[in-house]
């Protein structure tokens, strides 16, 4: 089975390696490229905060560039959206990391039940663009927080021939989609009749129903959403 990975290059390579280990053939078509702004994190960390929030391993990758300056903050509580992000934070050096089960609402609930604020706001080290699920949930709970954008995901511009080249002009059986933004980027690609044919029988495997909801014709059939918003559940759909 041939599976298309649409994640950014660094994360996509990890997924491709995992697919190969499971006996699948992996093709890569990264749809976005991260631009890190770790200096924003340093400014935000210099202001009072009671805990850190991270919702992506890309945020941890952005922080890695300033690891030597993070030592005073490694004891600060970190609340991560899921196990992969939590693991990355621990590897970087954070000592007190807790993980939710993979989405913003669950993360807000975890913060509400397990974190006692000390009159300082939470610090959300975020990316752009992003879903606002976490922010809406924190607002509903009345929890104070600040947002610091430490990376942006820039769309990679492809021509029709680029798509065919990345796929080696061979059909794919499944497409992995990890976010609503990725779904929108995929549907906006410049397909023609021959490149559309490469996806004629592909299943579109989405990290959540929210991701699936952003798929548009002709790709909004053969949609499958993971039961849980994590890669383990997503790959189980293949």
Please provide a written account of the structure.
By secondary structure, the chain is of the alpha/beta class. It has two domains: 2-31 and 156-235, Rossmann fold, CATH 3.40.50; 34-154, Rossmann fold. The protein has eleven helices and eleven strands. The strands form two sheets. Strands 3-8-7-4-5-6 form a six-stranded mixed β-sheet, sandwiched between helices. The relative contact order is 0.16. Catalyzes cyclization of the linear tetrapyrrole, hydroxymethylbilane, to the macrocyclic uroporphyrinogen III. Residues 14-216 form the Tetrapyrrole biosynthesis uroporphyrinogen III synthase domain. Keywords: Lyase, Porphyrin biosynthesis.
Termini Cα gap: 9 Å
Summed over residues and divided by their number, the pLDDT gives a mean of 95
**Helix run count:** 11
Q: Number of domains in the coordinates?
A: 2
Question: Would you report the number of β strands?
Answer: 11
Adjacency order of strands in the biggest sheet = 3-8-7-4-5-6
In the CATH hierarchy, the third-tier topology of the largest domain is known as Rossmann fold
**Content of β-strand:** 15-25%
Unreliable spans: none
Assigned CATH class of the largest domain:
Alpha Beta
Structural class computed from helices and strand pairing: alpha/beta
SSE pattern, N- to C-terminal: EHEEHEHEHEHEHEHEHHEHEH
The biggest beta sheet is recorded as: 6 strands, mixed
Shape: elongated
The percent of residues in helical segments reads: 25-40%
Level-2 CATH architecture of the largest domain: 3-Layer(aba) Sandwich
Cα-based radius of gyration, to the nearest Å: 19 Å
């Amino acid at each position: 089975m041939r599976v298309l990975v649409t994640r950014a290059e660094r994360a996509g390579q990890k997924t491709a390696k995992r697919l190969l280990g499971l006996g699948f053939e992996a093709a890569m078509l990264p749809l976005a490229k991260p631009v890190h702004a770790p200096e924003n994190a340093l400014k935000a960390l210099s202001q009072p905060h009671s805990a850190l929030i991270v919702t992506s391993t890309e945020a941890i990758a952005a922080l890695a560039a300033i690891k030597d300056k993070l030592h005073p903050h490694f004891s600060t509580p970190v609340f991560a959206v899921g196990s992969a992000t939590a693991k990355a934070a621990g590897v970087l050096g954070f000592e007190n990391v807790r993980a939710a089960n993979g989405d913003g609402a669950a993360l807000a609930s975890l913060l509400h039940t397990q974190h006692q604020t000390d009159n300082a706001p939470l610090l959300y080290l975020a990316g752009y663009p992003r879903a606002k699920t976490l922010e809406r949930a924190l607002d509903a709970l009345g929890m104070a927080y600040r947002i610091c954008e430490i990376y942006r995901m820039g769309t990679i511009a492809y021509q029709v021939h680029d798509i065919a080249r990345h796929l080696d002009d061979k059909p794919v059986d499944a497409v992995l989609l990890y976010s609503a933004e990725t779904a929108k980027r995929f549907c906006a690609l410049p397909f023609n009749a021959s490149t559309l044919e490469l996806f004629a029988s592909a299943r579109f495997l989405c990290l959540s129903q929210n991701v699936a909801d952003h798929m548009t014709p002709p790709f909004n059939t053969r949609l499958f959403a993971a039961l849980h918003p994590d890669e383990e559940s997503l790959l189980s759909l293949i």
